[in-house]
Amino acid sequence: MANQTYANHTRWFPLFHFVTFPLLLLNLIFQSVRLYQEPNTDRFVWVVLSVVLMLISLAARMQALKAQDRTIRLEERMRYREVLAPDLAQRAVNMPVGKIIALRFAPDEELASLVGQILDGKLKTSKEIKMAIKNWKGDYMRV
C-alpha cells in the first residue's frame, strides 16, 4: 500500500462507488426511459422503487461514515488528553467535528501547533488543516 498523503487520501469504497451505485443509477435511467416510452402506473412504481433503492444505498453509506466520524472523534479526544497540555486539550475537544477529523492525519509532534492555529482562527477549513500538515500520518482503516 502506498504512503498516504493529502493528494491520495480520498477513500473510494469500490463495491459502493464503482459497482452498487452505478448499477442503481443505470437501473433508474432504464426505468425512467421505460416510463417515458410506455407511461403507466407499473412503470411509475418501478421508477419510484429505483429511487428508493438508491436512497437506501446512500443512507447506508452515510450511516457508516457517521459511525466512523464518531469513532475518529473519540480517538482524537483521547489522543488530545495524552499529547496536548491539559488546557489546550480541553479547548481542542470543543472544536467542530470536521476539524477534529481533519487533525487525525497530523502526527503527535505537529498536533499542538495545528490545534493552536485552529483555535486562533488561522486554519478555518478541513482542507487548510490537512494542507498544513507537514508529516502526514495515514489513516488506512477508513471505510
Number of helices: 6
Strand coverage percent = under 5%
Mean pLDDT: 94
Major pleated sheet: none
Please give the share of residues in helix. 55-70%
Radius of gyration: 21 Å
Q: Would you write up a description of this structure?
A:
The protein has 143 residues and is an all-alpha fold. The mean pLDDT is 94. The protein has helices spanning 14-37, 41-83, 86-92, 97-102, 108-119, 126-132. It is elongated, with a radius of gyration of 21 Å. The protein contains six helices and no strands. Helices cover 69% and strands 0% of the residues.
Give a topology summary.
Layout: H1 14-37, H2 41-83, H3 86-92, H4 97-102, H5 108-119, H6 126-132
Summary keywords:
single chain; 143 residues; mainly alpha; 0% strand; elongated
Could you write a compact summary of the structure shown?
The chain has helices at 14-37, 41-83, 86-92, 97-102, 108-119, 126-132.
